[in-house]
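Write out this protein's structure.
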Amino acid sequence: MTGSFGRSGGNRRFVGKDGSKQDGGPVKPSGLSEQASSKWDELIGQLPHHELRRIDVHQLEILVGLVLEAKRLLEMLAANPADHPTRRLHLSTCQHISRLSSQFGLSPADRKRIDVEPEPEIDELEEFIRS
C-alpha cells in the first residue's frame, strides 16, 4: 500500500517539497533570440519565484523553445489545414509542453499535485519600517 509503514511507497510527507537551498533562481541564457527572450520573460513572470532554482534554467530554456515551436507550427497549420505531418508534429510538441510545464506547476492541477506554496505576501508597512 502506498505510504504504509514497511511497504512499498514509503514516506510521502516530503513528496512535492523542494528542500534545496534558494539560490536566486534561473538566469536568462545569453544568446536567446528576441522572440525567445520575450517568451522567457513572460514565463518567468508567471512562475512562483521562490520555487525556482538556478538549475531550472535548462528545463525552462527547453520549454521556451517548445512553446515557440508550437506557435510556429500552429501558424503553418492555419496556412494549410490539410498538412497532416505538421498537425502530428504540433500535437506532439504540445504533449511535450504539457509534460514539461507540469514540472513547474503551470496548471491548477499541477500546482496542487506538487504542492506549490503561494509566495509570501510582502507587508509594505513592515518593509518601510525595516528600511
